[in-house]
């Protein structure tokens, strides 16, 4: 990990973010807890995630240019999201980061950076 570069650049820019999204969503679709939250046609979701992560990690503001301010918590309020959902989402992301060959230091940094937003989306108690 080069501390002088953005996460976006450390992950390999547009190509790296695209690879991450493509490694991530098959895991989500195979996860029995997360899969029901996503539409069958995952392609539009993948494109939005690519745009959001590009922006979130310091690359071009693709998401904001296309959709306005991300307001990610508001966009996720219609879905019941528990702490377990957040942890499973992060587990899928960790697997995707490992699959695309992200080194340990960068992987841990990215997961830490995503942990706040993942837990911020929680809107439902466990039961």
UniProtKB/TrEMBL annotation:
GO terms for molecular function: heme binding; metal ion binding; oxygen binding; oxygen carrier activity. Pfam families: Bac_globin. Heme binds at residue 119. Keywords: Heme, Iron, Metal-binding, Transport. The keyword Lipoprotein does not apply. Belongs to the truncated hemoglobin family. Group II subfamily. This is Globin.
């Amino acid at each position: 990990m080069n501390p002088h570069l953005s996460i976006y650049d450390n992950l390999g820019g547009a190509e790296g973010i695209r690879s991450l999204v493509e490694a991530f969503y098959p895991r989500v679709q195979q996860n029995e807890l997360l899969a029901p939250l996503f539409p069958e046609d995952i392609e539009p979701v993948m494109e939005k995630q690519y745009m959001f992560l590009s922006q979130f990690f310091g690359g071009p503001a693709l998401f904001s240019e296309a959709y306005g301010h991300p307001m990610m918590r508001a966009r996720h309020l219609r879905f019941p999201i528990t702490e377990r959902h957040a942890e499973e989402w992060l587990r899928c992301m960790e697997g995707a980061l490992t699959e695309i060959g992200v080194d340990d230091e960068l992987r841990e940094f990215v997961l830490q950076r995503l942990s706040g937003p993942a837990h911020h989306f929680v809107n439902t108690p466990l039961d």
